[in-house]
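hey so u asked for the seq, here:
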Amino acid sequence: MYAKTMLNFLDHLLEQYGQSVVKLLVGSVADNIEVNCALAKDANLPHLPCHNHTLALDLNELYRSHSVVSLHHSAVCDIMGKVM
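ran it, structure tokens below
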């Protein structure tokens, strides 16, 4: 339902510029949350997962499964926190 609301909003917004989702968009690049996948499906658009989100998920899994990598990651985060 939320995806349909978003799709209607996008169409309404694009209509102000003489465009529509069908005329303007050729695909959806977003994270794989349910609403983004549903939006693409409702708009008959192919959905491609955002590689930044995919990489973050993969790295989080790496940190969980390898304690040495997790320790190094924590150390880098601590240093960056002090620098920034």
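Residues 2-49 form one domain. The mean pLDDT is 87.
lmk if thats what u needed
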